[in-house]
TrEMBL record:
GO cellular component entries: ribosome
Function description: This protein is located at the 30S-50S ribosomal subunit interface and may play a role in the structure and function of the aminoacyl-tRNA binding site.
Keyword Ribosomal protein appears in the UniProt entry: yes
Family membership: Belongs to the bacterial ribosomal protein bL19 family.
Pfam families reported in the protein's UniProt record: Ribosomal_L19
Organism encoding this protein: Mucilaginibacter terrae
Keywords: Ribonucleoprotein, Ribosomal protein
Annotated protein name in UniProt: Large ribosomal subunit protein bL19
Chain's gene name: rplS
Highest taxon above the source species: Bacteria
Cited Gene3D superfamilies: 2.30.30.790
């Protein structure tokens, strides 16, 4: 079992990602292939969770688009992620912010952390 994890860790190249946690607002620059063309699309939202560790680590970003909540799961070490920008740090008291799904409008805001 440990040997399998070791081989996985070696095969996936670690990317340099900025330090962020749940509650932070991030912009993910994600490469999208359309036919033979490739473009970078920005996805900005609040990180509601970070899941797993090592090469299989993922994070979920939630944004509200046209009044509808949209969540997207990104692998941290994905080759399709161009870069991740941390826009603001959030002041939250838990690691998984699933309660944001039930909130709308001003109630869904997260206080920003003082630096």
């Amino acid at each position: 079992m440990d040997l399998i994890k070791f081989v996985e860790e070696q095969s996936v190249e670690k990317k340099q990602v900025p330090e962020f946690k749940s509650g932070d607002t991030v912009t993910v620059h994600y490469k999208i292939r359309e036919g033979n063309k490739e473009r970078v699309q920005l996805y900005q939202g609040v990180v509601i969770q970070r899941n797993s560790t090592g090469s299989t680590e993922t994070f979920t970003v939630r944004k509200v688009s046209n009044g509808i909540g949209v969540e997207r799961i990104f692998p941290v070490n994905s080759p399709n992620i161009d870069k991740i920008e941390v826009n603001s740090r959030g002041k939250v008291r838990r690691a998984k912010l699933f309660y944001l799904r039930a909130l709308t409008g001003k109630a869904a805001r997260i206080k920003s952390k003082r630096v």
